[in-house]
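Issue 218. Parser rejects a valid record. Input:
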Amino acid sequence: MSPPFHSSAAPEFVSDPTPGIQSSVTTTTTTHPFKAKRPWPPDVSQLSPKDQFKLERKYKRRSALKWARPRWMKATKIAQYVGCFGVLIWGVLLMPGSEERLEGFNQWYQRKMDFIMMRRSKPSTREADDPQGPRER
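Output the parser choked on:
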């Protein structure tokens, strides 16, 4: 006895128990077990302006979500910031000719970088370069 929801006129839908093997049952739009709610693509000329706007807004949002690449955008933004700040730091600290303009700042920066990178120079050399003399730390 077959279940009451199966019709003898419509072909039966058999789910594929083995996903790797092609099923012998082919489904078309007329034999598909799940009917579409609306025809696709919709005839835009028959839609009201309000419905056209709703349709455009819905698919604009969906396409924006589909084409969004958050990791790529984040990596691009980080690369842009690194490039901008790198050029800025190079222009202020390392560019030839910046020694005269920012001599005190360059010395302070070099001392900090030496400390951070653990390439401490001799204390006597550092104190000799400091125009204000030795400082207590």
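Fixed in the parser; the record now loads. The chain is about 50% helix and 0% strand.
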